Each structure stands twice: as structure tokens, then as C-alpha cells.
């Protein structure tokens, strides 16, 4: 018996997905998308170990470190919209492959950069590419999932982020303490350079591996390529069931009727077709700022700005704070001091820039503990999301994180700082992943990645601003950024409360 899907696009695509089954293909897709998301966790937070390690080679002050941690965020700010536009017009998979390979190449180049400004420039392009990966991987994964499984599958991505947070300090601990000191003229190569290079390799491997996976059939259907979409659904059916292609019940699949040339077929090197493509991108961008998408777009942009400002700033600076606590406790054993007090004392006692390439092992250990602290919430989210609702997790985690951030001002030793850092990371990383899950349901296929990219642009602008503020104020008046970041988390929690309920309907 053949089924012709001729009416409601969303429900008919949903039926076609259900007919293809759920099994081996979806688990493999979750695996590679999870590894990609884990890799972005490494790419986003890698500088947290480069900051203390490269201080001597680049002669960095706290302000220089602020610029170095902020520059990749500037790349993300610009790259989010650029890659989002391409993904919504040219395809999810091809853009994911491009961003992963470009990120890997830039990572390898940055590992041999001999100058601070050159290193800064290349890490800008790392951020530019990572933004594309983060904005696309959730929509790409979500568009393969039936409604019954979609929200839970997307929520499992948080566990991969947690593994990335755990893996990064493990790699750093295994490489950075090693004695690698090579210098010839202006060029040098130390253990932290090798660490940067090793963290770039997975991007290249994942980019090549992704070539074995298909384009999103939902995206192809939206762009009028129903035959290709049907071929992919048949492929999924065969992988999941082990049956023959002709046993797939759906024999035809129709997408929306479109006049003129498909946007996917427009060539970037043809001036007229490029102009047509840019016009389509501008039209889709304007649509996000009109009803019925204006409200949800505004709310998600606000959430990303407030949440990302706090999360990425503090996560990048946590190892630096651990290092400063270690230096303080060595100078003043059995003396208690706040984060702000420790920073001001350590800096005021330093007449020159510290030229110690070594990071105390406790910094690696503490950062691994922060990652391990996220494991309970990483399981709690997918196992209970249908029972408690995704909005509950967002509002609860962000509000609690706001109070934890305030608590950073009251810590008096490295142990208290570690405990609050663990709670902060567990709550805010949960929120980051959950926001991406929600956005898959809030917008239609032709706007989905662009909407995620737009919100990420606002988020990275906040992260850029936050890292600059923290870099300039941590040594002299760090209570100001603590107040700002905690207030932003409270605001983002309130904005999440305004979001509609998601996860119960088929994708548009």
C-alpha cells in the first residue's frame, strides 16, 4: 500500500518519519551530533587554559587576557548570522562540514602563531567557525526526529557538552605540564601550543565523518526537493529496520509548491544569482521581526544575551581564578579572602608579569570536578523533561544560577569557590543546551537556523562585552561584574517564563 502525502506538510512529514522507524540511524546521528557539540564545548572554553599558560610567551596583562578571551566571541558574533543564513538557504550538513573543517585548520594555525596579535586574529576565525557549528547542530539533529522523541533526544545533547567540559581539562592536564620548550628566532613551541593543536584535530575528523550522513530531509522538502527527501527517508528506514527499500510504505512525498529556481541551486560566484540569494536572506531576516515570529525572536535573543554574557565570561575565567587562589594561598597560608580580595592582592604584589608557564595541578583537578558536577543535571534533563516541562528547567536553573553568582562575592577560600563554580556550571550549561532545544520548535524550517543564529549573535555580543568588563575590572573592582552577571541571569530566567510550551507538535 502506498501513501501519498499531499496535504498538511508538517503532519505528512511527521508520518513519513514515523514510517521510517526509530533506531540505529538515529542513534548514530545522535552520536556524531553529540560529538560535534562536545567539540564546540572544547572550542569555546579552550582559552581558559591558554590564558595562564601563554602569559609569559605573549607578555599578557589582565587587559590582554580580557581581549584574548573576548576576540573569539567577536568571531562568534559575526559568524552566527553568516553561517545561519547559509544553513537556511544552502543546507545544514554542508555548512556543518565547512565550519568543522575550517575550525580545525584555524586551530592548527593558531598553535604555531608567534605573536599575540596574530594568535588573536586566528582565534577570531576559530570563534567565527564555532558559531556556525553551535547554531546548526541542534536544528540538523532535531529535523530527523519524530515529535515523540525529538525533545528528549535534543536534551541528551547536554550530556555531550558535559563530557566536553570534563575532557578539556583532562587533555590540558596531560599535555600542558610536560616540558616542551623549543625556540628558534621569533618562533617558539611549548606544551600549550601542542595542547591547542591537539584540540583542533577532532574538528577535522568530525567534519570528514559527517560527509557520510545525509542532508536534513525536512530542509530538502521545504526547498522543493521532495525526491531527494524521500530517498533519505528510505535510507533511514533501511538502516533502522534492516528491510528492503521497496518495503517502505511511503511512495511519494510532496513539499510546498515553489515557482522559480530553488535557493539551494543559486551559485555564489554568479552575480545575478548571488543578488537573488542575498535578497532571499534579507527577506527571511525581516520575517523574523514581523508577527507571528517577532515575540519569540525577541525573547530568545534576550535570553541568549543575558545567559551567554554570564556563562561564557565566568567559564573562561574560572581556571584563572583558581590559579589566583592558589597563588594567594601559597603567599598567605590559612588566610581567608574573597575572589575580589584575592585578585587585587595577587596583582598588587606582582611588580612584573608572572612568567611561570606551569599551571598548578589543582587547577586542572578543580576544572574536571566542575565538569563532573554537571553529570547529574545532564541525566536529570532528558529523563524528566516530559514530566516537568522544558520551561521548568530553564526558569529554575537560571534563577538558581543568579543566586549562585551573587554567592561568588562571599566565598572566602578556594574550596568554597570550587563548590559554587560547580553549581554555577551545572545550572548554566543546562540552560544553554535547553534554549537550543526550545528554538528547534519555535520557528519553521526556513527560519529555524537563522533564528538560532540571530539569538546567538545577541548572545556572543554579550559574551564579548562580559569578557572585556571582567578583564578590566577583576583586579580592581570585581563586585561590579558579579552584580551585572547575577542580574542578567535573573532577567533571562524571567524571559524563559514568557516562552510558549514546546515539544508536543510536529515541526513546521
UniProtKB/TrEMBL annotation:
InterPro entries: MFS, MFS_dom, MFS_trans_sf
GO CC annotations, alphabetized: membrane
Domain Major facilitator superfamily (MFS) profile residues, every copy: 29-504
Subcellular localization(s) per the UniProt record: Membrane
GO molecular function: transmembrane transporter activity
Membrane-spanning ranges: 27-51, 66-87, 94-118, 124-141, 153-176, 188-211, 299-318, 363-385, 392-412, 418-439
Membrane-protein topology: Multi-pass membrane protein
Keywords on record: Membrane, Transmembrane, Transmembrane helix, Transport
Keyword Transmembrane: yes
Pfam families documented for this protein: MFS_1 (PF07690)
SUPFAM superfamilies attached to this UniProt entry: MFS general substrate transporter
Name under which the protein is recorded: Synaptic vesicle glycoprotein 2C-like
Gene: LOC119634648
